[in-house]
Amino acid sequence: MKLLIKGGTVVLADGEIKADVLVGEGKIVKIAPSINADGECKIINAKNKHVFAGLIDMHVHLREPGFEGKEDIESGSRAAVAGGVTQLCCMPNTDPVCDNAVVVNYIKNRAKEVNLCKVRPIGAITKGERGESLAEIGKMKAAGAVAISDDGKSVENSYIMRLAMEYANDFGIKCLCHCEDSSLADGGVVNEGYNSTLTGLKGSLRAAEDIMIARDIALAESLNIPVHICHVSTYSGAEIIKSAKARGVKVTAETCPHYFALTDDIITSYNTNTKVNPPVREEKDRLAIIKALKEGVIDCIVTDHAPHSLKDKQVEYNLAAFGISGIETVFALSYTYLVKTGALTLSELSEKLSSNPAKILGLEGGCLREGEVADITIADLNAKYKINSAQFYSKGKNTPFNGFEVYGKIEYTIVNGEIKFPF
Question: Which residue segments constitute the domains of the chain, with CATH numbers given?
Answer without folding.
Answer: 2-50+373-393+404-421 (2.30.40.10), 53-361 (3.20.20.140)
